[in-house]
């Protein structure tokens, strides 16, 4: 069973609270920062953790006794790949407890953003569901009665003579067809991405006009933060690439490290090699060039990573503030169309009498 299916089963069968993963990592990180070893931290947590987090502790302890790393056990338990990659990097550059703590804070921050988005979308989505219910009610209850009414008046006017009524008449087929096409599209995309590399999958989404800027902020912040920490703690960029290619790293890190290694073996500089990757903004390459010229590459990478993270947060907040009005406008137009579909046939009937 592949890792995707394992994560899916865990997400379905577990009863974890939404903030469970973030709180769990913060607890471990806090203990490590206080001087605990990973073994002692897990033993302590096994005495106080309950429910799903208690099972996580037991699972991690068993895995680490078999020689597995902490980040690989987290990945098996369904923790985000980005978090596992950050912890993997931290195992090489130090600040292990601080990094785990930061990962927990990131998960809690992302959870708050999801809550905001959910609160913004809940009411509009309920209205959309109500709207679809109205369409189905008109199709199967109101339109048949109106057809009988038209026939009883022996008028030549046809009830489906305008496009709004035709839309309502075929609304079940339109709704089911749209859902079917969406499901087929998702399955086709999943199969396509599964056959290619992780980099190919990210490249596909980055090329989409709407998602490109968000994903570049996300991945630039991630890579620059981890590379900056490695360089800050004495690693060269070549050593960072070797770390990415080790067996314990995720597929994304291994593919990225392999690609960068190939480019640099051809004689390309760091910024030229990074330019071949789709993850980064153009100014990211300029940041690297400037940082190298001043001998402060690690500092500028960390600063730029923080900048990209703030940019992503601001863009997400702006996006969330725009989604709700757009949905409300769509619902308003649909309600007007439904009202018109009721009134127009009646007016036509009155003219035909």
From TrEMBL:
Report how it sits in the membrane: Multi-pass membrane protein
This protein's GO cellular component annotations are: plasma membrane
Annotated transmembrane regions: 120-143, 163-187, 325-347
The answer on whether this UniProt entry bears the keyword Transmembrane helix reads: yes
Where does this polypeptide localize?
A: Cell membrane
Q: Which keywords appear in this protein's UniProt record, sorted alphabetically?
A: Cell membrane, Membrane, Transmembrane, Transmembrane helix
InterPro entries under this entry?
Answer: GspF/PilC, T2SS_GspF_dom, T2SS_GspF_sf, T4P_ComGB
Q: For the Type II secretion system protein GspF domain, which residue ranges apply?
A: 24-144, 223-345
PANTHER family xrefs: GENERAL SECRETION PATHWAY PROTEIN (PTHR30012), TYPE II SECRETION SYSTEM PROTEIN F-RELATED (PTHR30012:SF0)
NCBIfam families on file: T4P_ComGB (NF041012)
Q: Which family does it belong to?
A: Belongs to the GSP F family.
What is the protein name given in its UniProt record? Competence protein ComGB
């Amino acid at each position: 069973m592949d890792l995707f299916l394992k994560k899916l089963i865990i997400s379905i069968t577990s009863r974890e609270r939404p903030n469970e993963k973030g709180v769990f990592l913060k607890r471990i990180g806090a203990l490590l920062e206080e001087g605990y070893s990973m073994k002692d931290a897990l033993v302590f947590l096994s005495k106080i953790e309950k429910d799903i987090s208690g099972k996580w502790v037991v699972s991690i302890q068993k895995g680490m006794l078999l020689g597995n790393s902490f980040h690989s056990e987290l990945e098996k338990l369904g923790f985000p790949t980005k978090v596992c990659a950050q912890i993997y990097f931290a195992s090489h550059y130090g600040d292990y407890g601080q990094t785990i703590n930061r990962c927990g804070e990131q998960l809690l921050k992302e959870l708050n953003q999801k809550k905001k988005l959910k609160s913004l979308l809940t009411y509009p989505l309920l209205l959309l569901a109500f709207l679809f219910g109205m369409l189905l009610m008109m199709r199967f209850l109101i339109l048949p009665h109106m057809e009988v009414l038209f026939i009883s008046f022996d008028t030549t006017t046809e009830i489906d003579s305008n496009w709004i009524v035709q839309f309502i008449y075929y609304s079940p087929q339109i709704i089911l067809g749209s859902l079917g096409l969406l499901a087929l599209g998702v399955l086709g995309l999943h199969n396509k991405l599964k056959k290619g590399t992780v980099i190919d999958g990210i490249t596909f989404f980055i090329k989409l006009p709407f998602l490109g800027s968000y994903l570049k902020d996300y991945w630039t912040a991630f890579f620059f933060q981890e590379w900056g920490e490695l360089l800050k703690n004495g690693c060269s960029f070549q050593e960072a690439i070797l770390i990415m290619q080790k067996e314990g790293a995720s597929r994304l890190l291994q593919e990225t490290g392999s690609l960068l290694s190939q480019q640099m073996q051809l004689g390309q500089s760091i910024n030229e090699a990074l330019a071949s990757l789709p993850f980064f903004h153009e100014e990211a390459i300029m940041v690297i060039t400037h940082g190298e010229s001043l001998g402060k590459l690690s500092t500028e990478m960390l600063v730029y990573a923080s900048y990209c993270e703030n940019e992503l947060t601001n863009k997400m907040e702006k996006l969330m503030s725009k989604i709700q009005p757009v949905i409300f406008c769509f619902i308003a137009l649909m309600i007007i169309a439904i009202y018109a579909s009721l009134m127009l046939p009646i007016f036509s009937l009155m003219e035909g009498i």
